[in-house]
Amino acid sequence: MHRRLSAFVKGSARNHDDDSDVVGISDHDSESKASTVVRAEPLPVPSLKVKRVDYYYSRWGKTWKYRNMNSKITVEPTPTVNTGNNDPWKDYSVVIVRKLPKNPEGNQEPTFKIILKNNYIVKMCKDVIQKWPGVSWNAEPLELDPEMFLTFLPQITDYRDALQNKKETLGQEDVHVLDSVNLLLSSLSVDYRATLSTIHHLTSHSEITFDHLYAILVPRTIFVTQCAITGIPRLFELISFQWVMLGANPACQLSCESVDMVDRGTSQTIGRIQTTILLRHFKGTVNIQSLDAYPIKYHPDEKKLREILLQRGKKWVSLIGIHHRQYDGVAADHFSGMKHSVKGRIMVDRAMFRKLNPGYRSPAAVPRKLPKRNSSARRGGTPHSVYGVHIPNFGRSSSSSFIGNYANGVIVESRNDDDDDEIPDLSDEDLVLTATIVYGFSLSDKVWLEFNIDKVQDVDWNVDAFANLVLPAGRKNLLRSLVEAHHQEVGFDDFIKGKGHGLVINLFGPPGVGKTFSAEATSEHVRRPLYVLGGGELGTRASELDATLERIFDIATVWKAIVLIDEADVFLEQRSMHDLERNAMVAVFLRHVEYYRGILFLTTNRIQAFDEAFLSRIHVALHFRELTQESREQVWTAFINKLAVSKEITAQQIKDLAVRDVNGRQIKNAVRTAHSLALSRSQPIGFSHFSETLDAMEEFTKEFQGLKTVEK
């Protein structure tokens, strides 16, 4: 029942006769001119009359009764279901019922409902309103909240106008529909004149009150809101709304739909998900754009917003599947709610995200409506849903959750399609409804996150990385050839199936001589992701190591990533009779390395301590020696060129820098420190900044060596 519309026109009846509350409209009994259906009898002519009654509590009879509105005496018979000709309201199209408070002296206001007795109006409702929570168009009696008609009033008016514009060619049924809809609109315009005037005045200035909020909440319209994760604008399609209580205050709960990836058994597809947005109670008049969600027609630049979101939707579709990208921005951890600042390479992979984060509440698909069985379906035709996308890849659901959080759900359909991996063609209206986030893994932070799609960019590959690698030409060519051959998946299998498909490269030598950079340069050269792990991240027990390696190697295989395990000495050391746990860890490591199918780099410092079983599993071992002065010149030149200050530093100055006995990592740190030093002094970077930085590093190194000598 409608409780907030207090502008109902009282005194619409001037006497208490049976027809005193009737609004009449002349009948139009036109013959059908367009119908191709041969009817045995003419369609029933609607009764174009409206009745208004009060539903009140009789203190004398201790029961609820009906009477003509504003009448204090005449009591109406109580209508019952399926009364046929005995129905006291059978001669009316619309009955407006005002329910009076049981206690007239209380603070309660009357509530209203509309009872439809006209099937032509019901037909209009099915065409225009289609669905409304808690309403069945087959109900008898069909009791409706007037708020529903006021919400759809513009659409009902358009429906009437469309019929009116082609009145001369209408069939008999459509003529009756037109007359009946005119009756309903006439009644609403009279009874809710003040309310409709208020709504028009508010919305024409892009303003609204909470009591009139329903006027802009038209189902199947597009709403603008902010993504709870990224804070950027996004769109939803409003499906329905309902009034709820949030503590002591009323609130409006919107059920909306958007387009996202949904799970279907072990696969994924594009589908519709449902999200609930809560509009809290507010006082007075507010700008519609200040609401947490509002119709897109009130956006200051709807056309530009749609263009932006259309391009975002196309980008979202392009990121379905597995993609190596780079990211610069804030990403969200769903479980902790923490924000992470990420700048570096990421892997976009929703399937792996779901697999490794089973507790994540991912979007639930709206249950598909199976198509009716028809000749085209039997012939193998492609059925289409109401969204214009074929049924195997698109669906709807009824589960709900608050914005940003999604309820779990299942798609109630079992299929064995061959085209599960196909991406359906989405319309522009679907594309603007796509998600604002993608699910992926930060390769630098090693954490699964929700990434803002606007911040996801193509990888800017470092094409000079391999050229800057300081290695003898022969060994550099060997490394390039091996990696490129494996990258092209030139197959060689072991006698045991599944073994021997990997490429294991050991890089050994002292710190700071280019071992890690070699793996990084290789990944840049073949344009593959690089998954870097420290030895300490693999665990300290055999069981932990087993689980970690299995997970990482599975991920790397799917992503076709290069794996770098830094400081792997502890897992490769010679086994002994006294440390069973470490022996088990070495055995686990050997087994996983042997069956890994990708490229694996291992960096170590002590080649002498290797277990003999592991030596036979290394395809190539590269020894990195201490940097010579010539090598240091190459490293200095590469880093200085990267700073784009090569004109400020002469070749002789680079030679002077190369005389200093520092390794590659120290050179990188020195360049970074010198750059920061120059920025802090608002000076262009020069030789003096590098010298000052190296002097500080050497001073620290001497003090450190002195402390070690004292301790001994």
Automatic annotation (TrEMBL):
It comes from the Eukaryota. Pfam families: AAA (PF00004), AAA_lid_13 (PF23232), DUF7025 (PF22942). Residues 501-630 form the AAA+ ATPase domain. InterPro entries: AAA+_ATPase, AAA_lid_fung, ATPase_AAA_core, DUF7025, P-loop_NTPase. One of its GO terms (molecular function) is ATP binding. Coiled coil: none annotated. Residues 1-38, 363-382 are annotated as: Disordered. PANTHER family: AAA+ ATPASE DOMAIN-CONTAINING PROTEIN, FAMILY ATPASE, PUTATIVE-RELATED. This is AAA+ ATPase domain-containing protein. It comes from Collybia nuda. The lineage of its organism: Eukaryota, Fungi, Dikarya, Basidiomycota, Agaricomycotina.
